[in-house]
Design goal:
globular; eight-stranded antiparallel β-barrel; mainly beta
């Protein structure tokens, strides 16, 4: 993303959701392939009111067989501009390429559980993200079905 000066950061402040928060939101998601900065990885971003809740995967979640939970790591929230962005990331942090995008229906967003439906060309169905440790970074993605 082009550098817009020191006052704009790539990461937004983390979303703070009250425990038990449930909402049906018509929103969007994007899956980026991020390369050229550390190991190549995939970032799944879920649109929230003012930011994108983001999880990082070592492998493409759209290619997972989901017979087991897929490990991922919670990142800081990203700016909403990433929903439509492809290209270089500012300050020499590689580049991102959109590999999937579509509609998001957020069903539950709790401190340790997010449940949502994705409708994209590659990621489609009902999913859950589960917190698996107390540091709030290690999560797992489970596909529940269509």
């Amino acid at each position: 993303m082009p550098d817009r000066g020191a006052s704009n950061k790539l990461l937004a402040l983390p979303c703070r959701l009250a425990a038990g928060y449930n909402a049906r939101v018509n929103a969007r998601f994007v899956l980026h392939r991020h390369s050229g900065y550390g190991d190549m990885h995939f970032d799944l971003m879920l649109e929230q009111k003012s930011a994108l809740a983001t999880w990082q995967f070592a492998q493409d979640p759209a290619e997972g067989d989901f017979s087991r939970p897929l490990p991922c790591r919670r990142l800081g929230d990203h700016r909403r501009e990433y929903l439509d962005y492809e290209g270089p990331v500012s300050r020499g942090r590689g580049a991102v390429e959109r590999v999937d995008a579509g509609d998001l229906e957020l069903l539950t967003a709790q401190e340790a559980l997010w449940r949502f439906r994705l409708d994209g060309p590659r990621l489609r169905g009902l999913f859950e993200l589960h917190l698996i440790d107390s540091n709030h970074q290690d999560w797992s993605l489970v596909r529940l079905g269509d």
